[in-house]
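Hi U.,

Before I forget, here's the chain from the pilot set. I'm dumping it here mostly so it's searchable later in email.
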Amino acid sequence: MDDPTRYGVVLALVLVSFFFTAFAPDAPWSRGVLLLVESATLAAALWTSHIASLRPRLLVVGLAIALAVAQLFTSGRALTSAASVLDGLFVVATIVAISRGVVSEGRVSAQSVIAAICVYLLAGMLFTFLYSVAAVLGNGPFFAEGTDGTTAIRLYFSFVTLTTVGYGDYTPTGDLGHTLANLEALFGQLYLVTVVALLVSHIPARRAGR
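Structure:
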């Protein structure tokens, strides 16, 4: 029988990251806290997927704690940039860890579907980070509305794009913003109709009386 808490813990931490990003102010301390949550998510994914020993997990958390504490006491550009880059790397590493864990399991289960949902949400978080990078690198405002937006706004735009809702209240400018938005929309649609649909269709049916 599958342990219902396996990827459920990872999913809970991903949701914590999502809601914290949505409601926390744009401040150095909030980036530090987010870094801690994302390091815990990566450590949980490594533990759940059984692809890393205790030492790498402790190293990941220790590095995040050091940067997060530093962010609480300084808002230096170099440190903030390092924390932002580490945010993105942690999200990518978590996606890889979850994917490897599902593949190595060798069978489809309810846990596989929960893991796939985690990857979907993490993809939205990853594109939020990419939009933030594009806003920093761009010569003008990232959005056509004349603003780079806050992290919360970029998170909102990312998931509106991922789910192809397309409200149109925020639209990216420039080739980089357009390309990223196109890639996210394509990923969101293809992922749901291929990966998630295939996993759900291959979950073994429970026998009556069990």
